[in-house]
Amino acid sequence: MNRKLILLSFTLFVGSSVSTGAALAGSGVHIIVNHRVLSPSVSPQMVDGRVVAPVRDVAEVLGATVTWDDQTQTVRLDAPQSDASNRRIALLEQALAPDTAEQAVQTWARGVQTRNGALQYAVLAPALREQRKAEFEQVGWVTGVSSPWVKEFRIDQGTQNADGTRTFPVQFDWRTSVDIQNPVDWSKIPSIPVTVQQVDQHWYVVNAPR
């Protein structure tokens, strides 16, 4: 790898010198990873609308190991093991496991209000998690948009279904900067059904709108 410079075309957060202040006072393309401005061994360049930069400099700052196979002309990136992080997340999700049907809906609705996809995901039933995980990952676990946003929500009394699940009508008071001061009129806000089911002594969402 020392004899050859392997360049990789990739998409990262990049900006001009005017976008990030004194830290990026120079000209040219800059690369920022986790709020850290990189100083790669070879300056990144724009080529046909894409950023081209040394793969080693970018990969190693992300904790990956980079090796070069001269015989096969292959660059290999090995990401650090994430077992500890996965274990921590699993324990957090276990701690959030709702003890009641009402708590499951409340937690899910709070996740919608705060645009917290990780919180919504934590109270989904296993089958629904499998269906929607890719959707959450695609948006970086941040759901919804900055406007409109949910000022508050209300959960009505649930109904018991024949299959043992319970369905709760949930109303979200969506606001923008234009109507933020207006009083809420719950009678004009449609409700959406959220269904929960008991799984291994805890309650999880089995059906909810995207």
Notes on the protein architecture:
With 210 residues, the protein is an alpha+beta fold. The protein contains five helices and 13 strands. The protein has helices at 55-61, 83-96, 101-113, 117-122, 126-138; strands spanning 7-10, 13-15, 30-33, 36-37, 45-47, 50-54, 65-69, 74-78, 149-155, 159-160, 166-175, 192-199, 202-207. Strands 9, 10, 11, 12 and 13 form a five-stranded antiparallel sheet that branches. A hairpin with a 5-residue loop joins strand 10 (159-160) and strand 11. The radius of gyration is 24 Å and the shape is elongated.
Index terms:
alpha+beta; 210 residues; single chain; three-stranded antiparallel beta sheet; elongated
What is the fold's blueprint, element by element?
Elements: E1 7-10, E2 13-15, E3 30-33, E4 36-37, E5 45-47, E6 50-54, H1 55-61, E7 65-69, E8 74-78, H2 83-96, H3 101-113, H4 117-122, H5 126-138, E9 149-155, E10 159-160, E11 166-175, E12 192-199, E13 202-207
Antiparallel strand pairs: 1-6, 2-3, 3-4, 5-6, 7-8, 9-11, 10-11, 11-12, 12-13
Please give the largest β-sheet.
5 strands, antiparallel
Number of helices: 5
Mean pLDDT: 84
**Order of SSEs, N→C?**
EEEEEEHEEHHHHEEEEE
Work out the radius of gyration.
24 Å
Through-space gap between termini:
46 Å
Helix content: 25-40%
Secondary structure category: alpha+beta
Poorly predicted ranges: 1-25
State the shape.
elongated
Please give the number of β-strands: 13
% residues in beta strands: 25-35%
